[in-house]
Design goal:
By secondary structure, the chain is mainly alpha-helical. It is 58% helix and 0% strand.
Amino acid sequence: MFRPKLPDIPTLPTTHVAPQQTQAPVPSAGGSLTPYAGAVAAVVVVGVVLTALLAAVAISAVSVAIAAVVLRSLLNGATRR
């Protein structure tokens, strides 16, 4: 009752392909870098994220330091009057 009714799958005609003459693969002089592509991408992404976090912490620290200097000068100026 609750089962979906799937359409019938048409069968495609099959054709026979004659095997062609194949060439042996030429061995490359150097190793392939393909297996390392994911690792390199991960290292680059982690480096970018950590650099952005370091920059955010540095900007926050500078902002807090400037606010502390301004507040200190305001409080010292009020006590001298």
